[in-house]
Amino acid sequence: MCGIIGCFSQNNCYEKLFSALRKLEYRGYDSAGIAMLAEGEGGGKISVRKKKGGAEGLAGAPMAGETGIGHTRWATHGAPSDANAHPHVAGKFALVHNGIVENYSRLKAELAAAGEVFSSETDSEVIVKLIARAYAGDFFAAVSSACARLSGSYAIAVLCEDFPGEIVCARYKSPLVAGAGGGALYVCSDIPTLCGEAEYICTAADGEFIRICGGEIHFLDAAGREIPKTFSRVPPESRAQEKGRGSYMEREIAEIPRALADTLAGLKKTDFARCARVLRGAKRAFAVACGTAYHAALAFKDAAESDCGIPVLCHTSSEFRYRAPLVGEGDLVVAVSQSGETADTLEAARLAKGRGAYVLAVTNVAQSSLASLAHFTVAMRAGPEIAVAATKSYNCQLLCLYYIAAQMHFYKFTRMPPWFSSLFELPGAARAAFDCFPTMRSLAEALTDKRSMYFLGRDADVVTAMEGALKVKEIAYIFAEGYAAGELKHGTLALVEEGFPVLAVSTLSRLTQKTENALQEVKSRGAFTILLSQSAEVLAESCAACKCRLPDVCERLMPVVAVIPLQYFACRMCLERGYNPDKPRNLAKSVTVE
């Protein structure tokens, strides 16, 4: 899950690359590097600056050249190090790569037997050596020839000393977009990052090549034939924002009310009549997603099954295509991905579509690969989310999925569900949830030294508990698990001891006593108990040591609001423990490899 950038600019090319790499760091910050191609007599000269650590390590005097490529790395093959950092160089070529070359071991052995010496442990170095060996004066042909030998996924950008002013790029199952603006031409693995630099963008499809040369951008097939493309203007809301004070995660939590309002405005303009037949006629639905998006899918399952009478089978995308899923014609498949580039979710959606299912995508990037693949796309409008741990995008995913469930209800029963009007209360309720922050901050300060904790709930509250636990694991590095409260007695109660933190979410009136029973069980065994509820009566009667009152909205929609204090709690736990919430160790935001 690396970030790549290429740029041709007669002014400040290095500065443009460096700025883009800083915006790309949520795709990986194990190491970073830039290669510049400066024109000289008889061709050009490639110079490379790369280093273990974040993009800031590249700060210094600008490197000369009007053409360059850059990379920020999340390590797969080879530990983070200067040697494993991109760009990689062979002969007259420099290359940056996002993806995984699955047959690299065989190719590396073949190249080593032919006398090639490798300076890194990466799979990516294999590609640039293949290009160098295939080169016979035709830059594009050498790149195309090398790509034909690769298995797996890749987005690459390549420089050649014999071709100053040119960049040749290729894409297969890894995102790649071209852009133009401000007198510069770009290629990038990340649409939101490029939106901050370019005025117009166009996405490459699998198997396509991009060639920047002569001050123009060309899309080509493997044989070098031109592919007609249309560039689209970058929407202003897609531009990445500067961080300002504090972390990106803190800022993005603060943006939740605005993001929900923007998403609602977009949903009201979305023409669901285009997929009415599917929403009305589907006998069952599948939901595929990963991580936080999977928790949103579970909330969709609750709403669609309870209010629409449609069974929903939720699968983590990474397992879906390996389970021989019984998906086919007449089925609705809802694929959820913030970036729209999540490799496992893309493959799950591709499999479902190939079997005749109708794919409905929920994504924050309208020009993403998932949006292009799907039959119908519901575009979130959360705005760019830079912090690795998802916050506002999760709230907006929930909103979109509840809205879809409401549309399913409408097309089946010719009326909206009773909670539909409450959707429009969510931005205000989200803002009211900020009143919980002082309590959650004090709680984080009190629990800083804890090494593990439980999050509990019943029914839809289980989803909120799971997401709260995931956030604490991701950024505070504390072992946390979200459980159905009724499962405590089936094994997990064994870990509860004196002072063990147990946080419960209780927003469903028919189940509040059941959740309270679970709190009594853990408290009697010494647990430190915390309860979140919108009911003053439930809080007053609870045995919990710490209580937090949530804003009151329709019970069906409480997951959108109840999770906000938990998102903030995780962020505070992270900061109290001295970590950076924007860059959790071992993680990157856009998971573009399997």
Outline: globular
Task: State the fourth-level CATH superfamily of the largest domain.
Answer: Aminohydrolase, N-terminal nucleophile (Ntn) domain
Provide the number of structural domains: 3
**How many individual β-strands?**
24
Measured on Cα atoms, how large is the radius of gyration? 25 Å
Strand order of the largest sheet: 3-2-4-1-10-9-11-14
The first-level CATH class of the largest domain is given as: Alpha Beta
Roughly what is the average pLDDT, rounded to an integer? 93
CATH topology of the largest domain: Glutamine Phosphoribosylpyrophosphate, subunit 1, domain 1
Q: pLDDT under 50 segments (min length 5)?
A: none
Considering DSSP H and I runs of 4 or more, what fraction of the residues is helical?
Answer: 25-40%
Number of helices: 19
Strand content: 15-25%
CATH architectural group of the largest domain: 4-Layer Sandwich
Distance between the termini: 9 Å
Question: What class would the helix/strand composition place it in?
Answer: alpha/beta
Largest sheet: 8 strands, antiparallel
In a few lines, what is going on in this structure?
With 594 residues, the protein is an alpha/beta fold. The protein contains 19 helices and 24 strands.
Describe the fold and architecture.
The chain is built from 19 helices and 24 strands. The chain has 594 residues and is an alpha/beta fold. It has an eight-stranded antiparallel sheet with strand order 3-2-4-1-10-9-11-14. Strands 5-6-7-8-12-13 form a six-stranded antiparallel sheet. α9 (291-308) links the parallel β15 and β16 (312-316). α2 (104-113) packs across α3, α9 (291-308) packs antiparallel against α16 and α14 packs parallel to α19. The protein is globular and about 85 Å long. The model has no long low-confidence stretch (mean pLDDT 93).
